[in-house]
Automatic annotation (TrEMBL):
UniProt cross-references to Pfam families, sorted A to Z: 4HBT, Methyltransf_23
Provenance organism: Talaromyces stipitatus (strain ATCC 10500 / CBS 375.48 / QM 6759 / NRRL 1006)
Domain Thioesterase: from-to ranges: 240-311
Protein name, per record: Thioesterase domain-containing protein
CDD domains: AdoMet_MTases (cd02440), PaaI_thioesterase (cd03443)
Organism phylogeny: Eukaryota, Fungi, Dikarya, Ascomycota, Pezizomycotina
Amino acid sequence: MDERTTDIAEESICGRDGLLYAPHPSNARVLDLGCGTGIWAVDVANKYPEAFVIGVDLAEIQPFNRPQNCDFYAPRDFEDRWALGEDHWDVIHMQMGCGSVSSWPSLYRRVFMHLRPGGWFEQVEIDFTPRCEDGSLVHTSMHKWYQWFQEAMEMSWRPIGHSVKATVSILENQGYSGDLVRFGASVNALTTILKEDINPRDAMTISLISEYKPLFQSSDKEWALKAEIIIHQHLCYHEGKAHGGILAFLLDHMFADCCALMDRNRRAVTADLKLSYIRPVSPNLPTSFHVWVAKVEGRKIQMAGTVSLIDRELGEVVAVKAEALFIFLATS
Ligand SMILES: C[S@@+](CC[C@H](N)C(=O)[O-])C[C@H]1O[C@@H](n2cnc3c(N)ncnc32)[C@H](O)[C@@H]1O
């Protein structure tokens, strides 16, 4: 990818509002491994003026004109010896590192050693495997090309593929603990496919899902998605009140994405969707959507969700409760 394409890809993965997901102090020391053009590091430095951000990369392609609280070390190999000080970083970030790393266990160990106690490592990856909902890509040249590309990357000891399960297991073996928050790369890809399928004149749908940047969480017990979404007033029926149908659309969309995360190879459809509107949701303010899988029985997926907002007096309150039944379609 050229530099501009990388920047566009970065915007579509992280979103301009959701630069840093890891909790961090305002004066955080942040390290970006394989920073590429440096756009993420510069944006974080601008957004958090008290923070200090360093990007490292093999290629010296970062801008000279950078914020004072941002610096770049390039050319520098993050698989070579680090002389950046242990216990040094509040957040270490890596975005699109797959295809660049010969030993993930060593890199994760090194990252672990250089985080201050309680610090965070966050990694954002894309699953590039070409897929299509109806499976029609399977015998195409694109599919074949991707297989060869994968083989070539493996032969160069830097696999391009990414597996959430394998990553979590390596992270756990290297001593990481607590909430292992994983970014929904597959969800973002899914949403992107959906966006491409939309008729460009359908401004309402585009406007609705353009705010949708889900954060995927899972543990042995639960599959869940969280997203902060702004519902714009121009899509609402009443002034100052988010349209109930829009909230239902977004929750239904998130339920479907949550099912896709559980099993990408099967399609799930809505069989039942119930919403209780407890209090009005204001448009033009970030609103928290949270959906999770409550129970799976054969092809049936029982799900639940909430829409929450911040009330000045009460703090975080639930404005909408949702329950859904999704069904995995039978495979022929
Ligand atoms: C796919 S790009 C991602 C760039 C950036 N993180 C982004 O999301 O736009 C991967 C970057 O990692 C850099 N890279 C690959 N191997 C590296 C290494 N061993 N040490 C430092 N940088 C490396 C490449 O030069 C490239 O800029």
